[in-house]
Structures are given as C-alpha cells and as structure tokens.
Amino acid sequence: xxxxxxxxxxxxxxxxxDRRSLEREIARMAVRIRNDYAGARPVYLTVMxxxxxxxxxxxxxxxxxxxxxxxxxxxxxxYRGATTGADLVWKxxxxxxxxxxxxxxxxxxxxEGHTLHAIRAWCLExxxxxxxxxxxxxKAHDRCVEGLCADYVGxxxxxxxxxxxGMDFHEQGRNLPAIYALR
Length: 183
Ligand SMILES: O=P(O)(O)OC[C@H]1O[C@H](OP(=O)(O)OP(=O)(O)O)[C@H](O)[C@@H]1O
Prior knowledge:
- GO terms for molecular function: hypoxanthine phosphoribosyltransferase activity; magnesium ion binding.
- This protein is an alpha/beta fold.
- The protein has helices at 6-11, 19-36, 52-64, 114-125, and strands at residues 13-17, 43-48, 70-77, 89-92, 102-110, 130-139, 152-157, 162-163, 179-182.
- The chain has a single domain (6-182), classed as Rossmann fold (3-Layer(aba) Sandwich), CATH 3.40.50.2020.
- Strands 4-3-2-5-6-7 form a six-stranded mixed beta sheet.
- The two termini are 23 Å apart.
- The structure holds 1-O-pyrophosphono-5-O-phosphono-alpha-D-ribofuranose.
- 1-O-pyrophosphono-5-O-phosphono-alpha-D-ribofuranose binds next to strand 5 and helix 4.
C-alpha cells in the first residue's frame, strides 16, 4: 500500500467541482469549439494520462454537435506521480502526420504551463498549421509560462494541488468523477 493514502487525501481535501458542473462546463466549451471548427476535421490529441476522462467527455459533446475528430494521443509527463513538476519526459508521440493540420490538444490542467508549451512547440515543429489547447482546468496563480494560454477552458481551480477527473494524487484518484483540492 502506498504512503499516500487516497482516503486520507480525500479527508484532507475540498470538493471544488462536482461531476454535473464539470460536464456542464465541458458542454459549454464544446459549443465554442464546434463553432470555431465548422467545416474542419481537427487532429484531436489527448494528452495522456490526465487528459483521458476530459478528452473523452469533450469528444462526445463535439460528436453530438456534428464535429468529427481524428483521434490520436501523446504522453508527456513532468510530474510522474509526484505533486511538484520536474523535466518533461516524452513517453509516446502521436503517429498521425501533423503537417498542414489543425491540431486540438485536450488536457486536464494547465498549471505552470510547461507541459503544453513544449507539446505545442513540438506540434508546430512537425508542421501543424495551427495548434489550439482545450484544458478542463487552469490553476489561478502567476507562475504560468509566458505566452501559454489555453484557448478553451472549463474551470479555474485554486492554487492548491488538485486531483480527480483525470488528475492524480500519487497515481490514484484519476477516475474520481469530480475535482478535489488538497487543503
Ligand atoms: O502545466 P504544468 O505545470 O506543466 O502541468 C500540467 C501537466 O501535468 C499533468 O501531467 P503529468 O506530468 O502529471 O502527467 P500525467 O498526465 O501522466 O499524470 C497534467 O496532466 C498536465 O499535462
């Protein structure tokens, strides 16, 4: 058993967004994205692992509104199960050729922004015509990398460690259907 007990973390955390409110915000984002991509078929890149539940929910909301997506995924991590970030490690790069394509990245959180900054730069190096970012959550602080801003945002979370809805507490709790913030 891990030293980092999920039940204890939940005792020491506040529920900040429940499933209903998150799904409502994701549906709201989907309306904007569908309007912005009318007539297009973007490459939809899920940023694993944390982006998975959000990307799936958003994809369904987009499909319901008539926007088709070409699915692929990537895995780049800099937290590796810890609660503070380090250097970015690429574990999987997408196989889909990005040259000339509109790319939509779907991830759970923009915290300090280093992860999505590097991923966006790599997609542009591959020749993507455009790269946009959809993030379920952005963290409210002034430590974000300059020039990194999500194009579509679900909710703003406080400057505390958050978990649930894809985000892990020491690799646990990703499938909690809500967002919690540690006290
Ligand atoms: O804005 P940043 O400070 O760079 O942090 C945000 C990134 O950190 C998390 O990934 P993590 O490295 O934990 O990998 P994981 O998704 O596999 O948990 C999260 O999913 C984002 O991709």
